[in-house]
Design a protein that fits this description.
Helix content: 40-55%
Shape: globular
Distance between the termini: 31 Å
Strand order of the largest sheet: 1-2-4-6-7
Strand content: 15-25%
Structural class: alpha/beta
Number of helices: 4
Largest sheet: 5 strands, mixed
CATH topology: Transcription Regulator spoIIAA
Mean pLDDT: 96
Number of domains: 1
Low-confidence stretches: none
Length: 113
């Protein structure tokens, strides 16, 4: 599996295990996120600490997660951004839209507060 999913009491942690979040695997992430949402999960942390590259397909999956959580009064936090991924998010100005934390621990604090 390219994404590890760990259920916690108040949120779900999705860990990306892919080096490149792109058209070859972004649709799998979207499906996982939609399944979580349909099962009642509305607070998600997406840990991208192992992901070194992200294209527009990957950004689309991230935005879908953000929208699904917000539409159900939950929270979405992106964490562990590698330099190239952080740069892509900055260029696309998604850093103004998304909640971003340096680590999963800091992301958990955002979710719980």
């Amino acid at each position: 599996m390219k994404f590890d999913i760990t259920q916690h009491t108040q949120y779900t942690l999705v860990e990306s295990k892919v080096e490149k979040l792109d058209a070859s695997n972004a649709s799998e992430l979207k499906v996982e996120l939609q399944l979580l949402n349909k099962s009642g999960v509305n607070s998600i942390i997406l840990d991208c600490s192992k992901t070194k590259y992200c294209d527009s397909s990957g950004l689309s999956a991230i935005l879908i997660a953000n929208r699904l959580c917000k539409d159900t009064n939950g929270k979405f936090v992106l964490c562990g951004l590698q330099p190239n991924v952080a740069k892509m998010i900055g260029i696309s100005q998604l850093d103004k839209v998304l909640s971003i934390a340096d680590s999963a621990e800091l992301a958990q604090e955002i979710i719980l507060n």
